[in-house]
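Every protein is a chain of amino acids, and every chain bends into a shape of its own. The protein below has been through that process, and both of its lines are reproduced in full.
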Amino acid sequence: MSEHSLIVDEMPRPDVLRGTLKFLTPYFFLLPTLIIFGLFSLFPLVCGGFMSLYRIDMVNGKWLFIALDNYSRLLRDPVFGQSVLNTFWYAIAVVPGTLIASLAVALFLRESRPARLVARLGFYIPFVLSPVVVATSWKWLLNEDFGVVDDLLRVLGLSSIPWLTSQFPARFSVVVTTVWNLVGFYMLMFLAGLSQIRGELYEAAKIEGASVLQRFYYVTLPMLRPTILLVVVLTTVHSVQAFESILLLTDGGPANSTRLIVQNMYDAAFLHLNPGYGVAQAILLLPVILFIAWIQMRMLKSEGEG
């Protein structure tokens, strides 16, 4: 056998090259996304985990390795414990509130008519507003001295309410502000989900004698289960990460009653110049978010199988 024939036999065949390229093509398309995800998600996460093991002197630029001292300090910090409880009740109130309100608005605006198109835009506008605009507007509306809400209460013969200076009203106010801000976005998600439900299903249920509530329970809700799951997960993540509007609205007060975890991180890193302690809180927050999302997905999946 000649040397030329050996070289030809060792060269990869066109069909093999074609199969290899076909196998690798999807990964080539994913490569830009994976690079961006690695640079802006995985790399900061690794750096954050590294920083959480140090006490960093921002003035002198010195790093002192303290191992897990930042994490043990979190367990002894009463303000951090209160912020965890505040974040928990905030999520418990915001998630179902946003879910119910956005679904109700979507059901009301399901018919595509010119007037309702304008209404859809009106409901969506709060979501695209800056958190600064949202917080400033609500702070003016809820002001105890010259706010529009308390002025209306006084006109009705009722006493004014310290919406932002008393603990329970302040908690109620930040929840209402958040739900108002988010309803428009998730309304669009529900509208998209409702548009995928075939009208024949409602007609068949109507022929069988199902009432409006029965059609909603047995037709609308099961068909909207994927959208509901997505809304629940996204609103939960948003609730746990809430920061700007609450900081501007109440600054975590009164008496830390509306202070959430993210504000603790901000204060530790930028006000007290201790970024290692702030990053430790963020690292601790990540598995909590993942666990809550996993529980929600399991619950909704089990309901769907049932």
Observations:
- Residues 18 and 236 are 45 Å apart (CA to CA).
- The chain has a mean pLDDT of 83.
- The domain at 72-305 is CATH 1.10.3720.10 (MetI-like fold).
- The first strand starts at residue 54 and ends at 57.
